[in-house]
């Protein structure tokens, strides 16, 4: 993209083990940039780097982007490990990362605006939903990094409070696809649910193995041992294949959300990026991040780091998922939690949704033990 406007950096691993999600995020960034530029209010020029899913490459990529004195804003990163890896660079260079991914929480930074869901907006609603469905015995399997460690810890504590148990817990390296033995053990243990924090190719291999081995044991995997996730999205369903349907996902956005803004967003998405599958939560969060950045620049009257950061506090946007607001204190967003069930057409049926946006609580300071005990004793109302 060319022009004389504000230059921003896009940092997405469009190659590597979680390339599918990142390609959708990059596409959503391009869509938002084109909308903003077409409005005539502001011009954004983008420079893109691809770290290839290699953790060490993120620092180099970020350093290279910020070597351009015109760039003080980056949009991107998918994994929490990549975000944490580049934080010291952002702090040293006075740059702002607009981080468009759900994450495990327990972080606030004056160098990050978080447009994805915090733990009280994804893992806590999922825990309540599972307990409300009388599913108290979980098996946890994840990729071996902070996203999995923290989300599994939160879910483990929620189960313990409600009198539930964790029957097994395993971690594998990012990109590992030899998970058949873990799937075999899960089928043998017959938990009430599996909570997976696997990402990319690891997730695809695991779901295929679990569906295959459960079927061989005479089980209906999606009904007898449902898989629950806080990261499974439309970007990944086409890559899973025959095992794509019947999984639970906790998110603030699905392509089937019924709002006028989402109708416009999905129409634009399908017209340009149908080859990437339906629009996903990470794509929507990226689209939101770019629009929030543009609005903050307009409000500040400048694209300077400190001016834009201060202007971002309290800013609102009519997002595809619904109205959101950047929290003035912690720079996370108020978002609306939902639970979806994956379909074989690459979309999700929405099984439950919050009646209103939920304020971000990255440190879970507002969550009460009684919430999980109540959930374990009461079935949640399902919203059609």
Annotation keywords:
single chain, 384 residues, alpha/beta, Rossmann fold, 2 domains, seven-stranded mixed beta sheet, five-stranded parallel beta sheet, 15 strands, globular
Q: How are the SSEs ordered, and which strands pair?
A:
Elements: E1 6-11, H1 19-39, E2 44-49, H2 55-66, E3 73-76, H3 80-93, E4 96-99, E5 112-114, H4 123-132, E6 137-143, H5 146-161, E7 165-172, H6 180-189, E8 193-197, H7 201-216, H8 221-224, E9 227-229, H9 237-240, E10 248-251, H10 260-273, H11 281-300, H12 305-312, E11 316-319, E12 322-326, E13 333-334, E14 338-342, E15 348-353, H13 369-377
Parallel strand pairs: 1-2, 1-3, 3-4, 4-5, 6-7, 6-8, 8-9, 9-10
Antiparallel strand pairs: 10-14, 11-12, 12-13, 14-15
Helix pairs in contact: 1-11, 2-3, 4-5, 4-13, 6-7, 11-12
> What number of structural domains do the residues give?
2
Question: Main sheet, how many strands, which sense, barrel?
Answer: 7 strands, mixed
Low-pLDDT residue spans: 379-384
Structural class designation: alpha/beta
Q: How far apart lie the N and C ends?
A: 42 Å
Radius of gyration: 20 Å
Fraction of residues in helix: 40-55%
Sheet-strand content, in percent, reads: 15-25%
Number of DSSP helices?
13
Instruction: Average the pLDDT over all residues and give the rounded result.
Output: 94
Written as H for each helix and E for each strand, in order along the chain, the element string is: EHEHEHEEHEHEHEHHEHEHHHEEEEEH
Strands in their spatial order, largest beta sheet: 7-6-8-9-10-14-15
- What is the CATH first-level class name of the largest domain? Alpha Beta
CATH superfamily of the largest domain: Response regulator
CATH topology grouping of the largest domain: Rossmann fold
Number of strands: 15
């Amino acid at each position: 993209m060319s022009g004389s406007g504000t230059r921003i950096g896009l940092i997405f691993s469009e190659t590597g083990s979680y390339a599918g999600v990142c390609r959708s995020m990059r596409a959503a960034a391009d869509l938002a940039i084109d909308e903003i530029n077409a409005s005539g209010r502001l011009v954004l020029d983008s420079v893109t780097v691809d770290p290839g899913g290699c953790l060490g490459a993120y620092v180099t990529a970020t350093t290279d982007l910020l070597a351009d004195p015109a760039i003080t804003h980056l949009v991107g990163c998918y994994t929490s490990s990549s975000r944490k890896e580049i934080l010291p660079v952002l702090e040293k260079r006075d740059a702002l990362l607009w981080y468009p991914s759900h994450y495990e929480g327990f972080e606030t930074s004056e160098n990050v605006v978080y447009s994805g869901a915090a733990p009280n907006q994804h893992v806590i609603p999922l825990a309540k939903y599972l307990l409300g469905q009388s599913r108290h015995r979980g098996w946890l399997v994840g990729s071996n990094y902070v996203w999995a460690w923290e989300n599994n810890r939160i879910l483990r504590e929620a189960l313990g409070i409600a009198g539930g148990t964790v029957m097994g817990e395993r971690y594998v390296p990012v990109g590992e696809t030899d998970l058949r033995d873990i799937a075999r053990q899960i089928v043998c243990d017959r938990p009430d649910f599996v909570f997976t924090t696997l990402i990319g190719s690891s997730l695809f291999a695991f779901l295929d193995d679990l569906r295959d081995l459960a079927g061989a044991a005479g089980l209906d995997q999606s009904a007898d041992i449902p898989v629950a996730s806080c990261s499974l999205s439309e970007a990944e369903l086409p890559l899973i294949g025959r095992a794509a349907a019947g999984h639970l996902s906790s998110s603030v956005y699905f392509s089937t959300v019924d709002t006028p803004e989402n109708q416009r967003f999905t129409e634009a998405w399908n017209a340009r990026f149908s080859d990437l599958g339906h629009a996903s939560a990470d794509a929507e969060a990226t689209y939101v991040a770019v629009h929030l950045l543009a609005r903050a620049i307009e409000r500040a009257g400048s694209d300077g780091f400190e001016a834009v950061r201060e202007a971002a506090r309290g800013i609102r946007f009519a997002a595809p998922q619904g109205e959101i607001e950047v929290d003035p204190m912690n720079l996370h967003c108020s978002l609306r939690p939902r639970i979806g069930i994956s379909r074989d057409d690459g979309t999700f049926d929405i099984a439950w949704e919050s009646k209103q946006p939920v304020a971000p609580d990255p440190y879970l300071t507002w969550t009460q033990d009684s919430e999980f005990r109540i959930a374990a004793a009461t079935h949640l109302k399902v919203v059609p």
